[in-house]
Amino acid sequence: MSSHHIVRENQEPALLIEDLFLIDEEDLGQLVEWSPTIAIENDMLDPLNARGYKFDIVFSQTPADPVQENLKVIPYSNNFLRTAIEYLIEHDYKAVNIITDQISHADYHRYLDLINVVLLAKGMRYYFATTGFTKWKAGGEQLKIDSQNEEITTEGLRKIGDDLYEMEKEGLFKLGFSKSKYILIGETIS
User: CA-CA distance, 113 to 97, in Å (whole number)?
Assistant: First the structure.
């Protein structure tokens, strides 16, 4: 007897690739393992196509010919990430992984109530958390917490530098804050 996984449309986080060269091949392979909707900017079309990746949506500032079957080409004029995230929200996606070097709260705050955003760049995974957030980590692991000058309280963490924290021991850590709705947490991709 075999087991079958049924992946419903928009169930997996979409994958936006702004810069393919910010992630190593193995980590990219893990992201595409469950066949997410892959959306790219036109500049990434040739590098991804050359590596044999299939993608679903190309956002382009100039007319582009579909180079793969069933490829949607969507014109945009200003900001790729903004246009792509708004497209995903309009099409009922609940989550998105974004390979980008635009790692700031300001770039995404308007979307955080509408879609779960995870940012990936240079061996790091960044995600947005609300107050009361808890997560299990191994002792000694380090986290970057962009508190946006918010006073935060932590349990299970010790501050070791500007926006840099370390797990005191293996277990749960907890964050508390009151001014912002979300803060940005960065951790090493393992």
Answer: 16
Q: Which two tokens stand for residue 60?
A: 């382009």
The answer to whether the beta carbons of residues 55 and 35 sit under 8 Å apart is: no
Q: Which residue has the tokens 């299970």?
A: 156
- pLDDT per position as a tens digit, 31-66: 988 889 999 998 888 888 888 888 899 999 887 666
Best CA proximity match to 176, nearest among 158, 156, 151: 151
Instruction: Judge contact between 154 and 173, C-beta under 8 A.
Output: yes
For 1, the 3-state DSSP assignment is coil
Strands 72-75 and 95-99 turn out to be: unpaired
* pTM score, whole prediction: 0.89
DSSP letters for 86-115: HHHHHTT--EEEEE-S---STTTGGGTTTS
